[in-house]
């Protein structure tokens, strides 16, 4: 990896935002949106006890993957609002989890790490790369390089022993049930990361892989002709037993990947695929006649069967659909129709707890439902702050992507610098990237760029 030193950028003053109670939200006023986002972001971060000096796992019952998802939500918060007060904490959270091979395969979390978990950290890492989010540790590769490492790790587990391909849900034999299930979240995360790397680097190998994963998902029947994205199927059944359950986050992961591919390829098929999936996603709105255009998780919400994971799904649904509109503007009317109504409904539920601002899960109730949690806060946060997505700077690519060492509010001090990294590690061929494609489930292989871990203290 090549680093070229540049002049350090001028420090950017921190944006001062006044907190606003969610019930006071005015979706036509960007300052109001930012103020409400500040309030809800603080609520979400109250579940995370890490510091700028140390990552700390989320408390039970939240899993490791949701910490990666939370970092993604907070990256959005920083980028959309201009409030960088959490940036050092986010950077530490991401960097403390890189693992010995800088691909977010962290031995201490192998017991709960599947392909989908790694992909969620990967999508957050890609967001950091596309925004030149500060990476202060010179002994760790840049965000883009680590995104490529994650891609190679996932590609190395492409499994052709059944279903003609696809990623299994789980990686290790310690999670045996998931070793017989190929799910759309794992494969969709891989697809989206490939698409984003294709745009960020211009490397056709990544776009070829994105095409391959999409084609496989569609051919196996996990995406139907109407754009519905189903949960998965069993390898032991040769993926002939598609589970017809649909979740909002599964759909949105593919929606954003398809939208990015529309930008990368300029091929109308990707625009049409994005539009079709957004149209199919109308099923996640209007649970009752008196709750028109209000978002809900239809697989579980009305019957009170949503677990802690599922209560966060609307966060990623909103995150990725808002982002997709940048590349496929034709979905903007659907966002205005569906998401704007949902934003106001979500804000009305954020009246709980001692603060009077905690959010809840059932937005169609019009009030706090007595069921707070991290997923509820993240869902409200991403749905509200996403209103600002298209006003923020677009994701960077090519030579625009640099490794930035200094934080926005940091004055010039000795050792601070900005560097531009060379291109992300380039797989020499599809077969080289998927060196483990014929291996048994659970085998971990990767040919990505690796650097020795060197513990470093005091980045800032």
UniProtKB/TrEMBL annotation:
Comp. bias (Polar residues): 427-447
Reaction catalysis annotation: Random hydrolysis of (1->6)-alpha-D-mannosidic linkages in unbranched (1->6)-mannans
Transmembrane residue ranges: none
Family as reported in the entry's similarity comment: Belongs to the glycosyl hydrolase 76 family.
Recorded superkingdom: Eukaryota
Protein name: Mannan endo-1,6-alpha-mannosidase
Enzyme class (EC, first level): hydrolase
EC identifiers of the protein: 3.2.1.101
GO biological process annotation, one example: fungal-type cell wall biogenesis
Source taxonomy: Eukaryota, Fungi, Dikarya, Ascomycota, Pezizomycotina
Region (Disordered) location: 412-460
GO molecular function: mannan endo-1,6-alpha-mannosidase activity
UniProt KW Secreted keyword: no
Keywords: Glycoprotein, Glycosidase, Hydrolase, Signal
InterPro entries, A to Z: 6-hairpin_glycosidase_sf, Glyco_hydro_76, Mannan-1_6-alpha_mannosidase
